[in-house]
Design goal:
alpha/beta, three-stranded parallel β-sheet, 13 strands, hydrolase, protein serine/threonine phosphatase activity, EC 3.1.3.16
Length: about 300
C-alpha cells in the first residue's frame, strides 16, 4: 500500500495525518489543479455534491449512498471547510482522492475557500487546535487559489437525473429541449441560478448554447472526438498547456454549467470565466466574487438587495 493509500485509509477513519504529509499532498494537488481550466470539463454521468462544511460523517454517508470514488464520478461544488468539526479531515480526504484519481473527482471553489472567511468561521482555529500552528491552514489556503471556478458537465442528455436526499426529496436540474429552442438551466449552490432559451434556427453561437457544435473551443485538434478541457494558459498558471479528454462521444447531448454561487452581471459567456485570473484570494467584488458569492433569490429581476452573508 502506497503512502497516499495509507493516508486515504487513515483519513477515512477521521484521523489526522502528519503535517509533513499534508504539505506533500497539498503540493501534489496544486500540480494537478494548475493544469485545470477555470471552467473544468466533466463528462456525464457524474454525481454533483453541494457543501460539505466539515461534516465528515455526512461525507462518508454520501460515498456510501452514491458509491465510492473512483467507482462513481464526483463533482464537489465547494465550501469544503468551516462550521463543521472535521473540516481538515474532510478537505484532506477529498484532496487525497483528487491526487489518487484526478479524472474521477472534480473540486471547484466555494466562497469559504478563502483566507479571510476561514479565519472567522472555524477552519483556521481547527488547524491551530489539531496541529499547534497555522502551517496546515496555509498549505490548504494555497490549494484554494488553484481550485476551478466552475464545471461544465458534458453529455448530460435531455435530462439530468434527480438525486434523492435522505428524506426522499428530489434535487433536480433539467435541460429541456424542443424543436425550436434550447433551454439551459444554470445551477449553483442555492438551486437554479438563471435560465436562458435560444432558438436553434437562429444559429446563435455563444456560451449559453452549451453544445460542442456551438462551442468550437470544446473541440480538439488532437484525436477525433477529443475535447479540450482548457485553453493553453487557461488554468491557474499562464504556462498551462491545456489538456484533452480523448475519445469523447461525438454527440454529447448538451451541457450544464455548475458554479458554487451564481452568475455575474460582468459575465455573459463561459469564455469570460475562462479569462479570469483565479490564482488569488477571493476578491471583495467583481466577476470572481460574484461566481462564488451570488446566492439566487426568488425575487423579481428588478429588485436588488444586499446579500446577508456578505
Amino acid at each position: 500500500m502506497s503512502d497516499l493509500d495509507k493516508a486515504i485509509e487513515q483519513l477515512r477513519q477521521c484521523r489526522p495525518i502528519p503535517e509533513l504529509q499534508v504539505r506533500e499532498i497539498c503540493f501534489k494537488a496544486r500540480e494537478i489543479l494548475i493544469e485545470e481550466a477555470n471552467v473544468q470539463i466533466v463528462d456525464a454521468p457524474v454525481t454533483i455534491c453541494g457543501d460539505i462544511h466539515g461534516q465528515f460523517h455526512d461525507l462518508m454517508e454520501l460515498f456510501r449512498v452514491g458509491g465510492d470514488c473512483p467507482d462513481t464520478n464526483y463533482l464537489f461544488m465547494g465550501d469544503f471547510v468551516d462550521r463543521g468539526f472535521y473540516s481538515l479531515e474532510s478537505f484532506l480526504l477529498l484532496l487525497c482522492l483528487k491526487v489518487r484519481y484526478p479524472d474521477r473527482i472534480t473540486l471547484i471553489r466555494g466562497n469559504h475557500e478563502s483566507r479571510q472567511i476561514t479565519t472567522v468561521y472555524g477552519f483556521y482555529d481547527e488547524c491551530i487546535r489539531k496541529y499547534g500552528s497555522a502551517n496546515v491552514w496555509r498549505y490548504c489556503c494555497d490549494v484554494f487559489d488553484y481550485l476551478a471556478l466552475g464545471a461544465l458537465v458534458i453529455g448530460a442528455g435531455t435530462s439530468v437525473q434527480p438525486t434523492r436526499s435522505a428524506d426522499g426529496e428530489d434535487v433536480e436540474t433539467k435541460i429541456r429541449e424542443a424543436e425550436d429552442e434550447v433551454e439551459i438551466e444554470v445551477i449553483g449552490l442555492g438551486g437554479v441560478v438563471t435560465r436562458q432559451m435560444l432558438r436553434r434556427e437562429a444559429g446563435m453561437i455563444n456560451s449559453t448554447n452549451l453544445t460542442p457544435s456551438a462551442l468550437p473551443h470544446l473541440s480538439s485538434s488532437g484525436p477525433a472526438g477529443a475535447l479540450l478541457t482548457g485553453f493553453p494558459g487557461a488554468g491557474a498558471s499562464g504556462s498551462s498547456r491545456g489538456t484533452t479528454t480523448p475519445n469523447a462521444p461525438a454527440n454529447t447531448g448538451g451541457a450544464v454549467l455548475c458554479v458554487h454561487g451564481g452568475l455575474s452581471p460582468l459575465i455573459d459567456s463561459v469564455d469570460k470565466i475562462r479569462l479570469l485570473d483565479r490564482k488569488q484570494e477571493v476578491p471583495h467584488d467583481g466577476a470572481m466574487c460574484d461566481l462564488l458569492w451570488s446566492d439566487p433569490e426568488g425575487m423579481p429581476k428588478t429588485n436588488l438587495r444586499t446579500n446577508p452573508q456578505s
